[in-house]
Amino acid sequence: xxxxxxxxxxxxxxxxxxxxxxxxxxxxxxxKYILPKGAEHRDYRDGGARQPSKSYWHISQIxxxxxxxxxLIGDLENPKAEPLRLDRNTIKRxxxxxxxxxxxxxxxxxxxxxADAITGDVFLQCCLFGEIVYG
Length: 135
Description:
Elements: H1 9-23, E1 28-34, H2 59-62, E2 70-75, E3 84-86, H3 88-101, H4 103-111, H5 117-129
Antiparallel strand pairs: 1-2, 2-3
Helix pairs in contact: 1-5, 3-4, 3-5, 4-5
């Protein structure tokens, strides 16, 4: 039986935070920020025009969710590989993959209180690779 689940942008930002600030540190590097048309880096500072809520989010947790925004992520384990694009489309695909292939981690992501660095790492790998590559 297939069901649909709505995931808030803040939940996704939390998963990205878990990945970027711990879970994926041994293999990822942000090579480039692709800002939406008309946006500037200063817009993402605390109190900036593109901060989405009262909570502070780092630019890396906002840009890939914005229309026209993306991060180009390099793989430290494979430095000659082309950077992979993380944007709203790859995030959506990654959520579907996580739900289908890794239900335990998916459940942790949905509960938020159970989401941790491992959950964030699994999420980021699902978005970029379509599976867990670094376990």
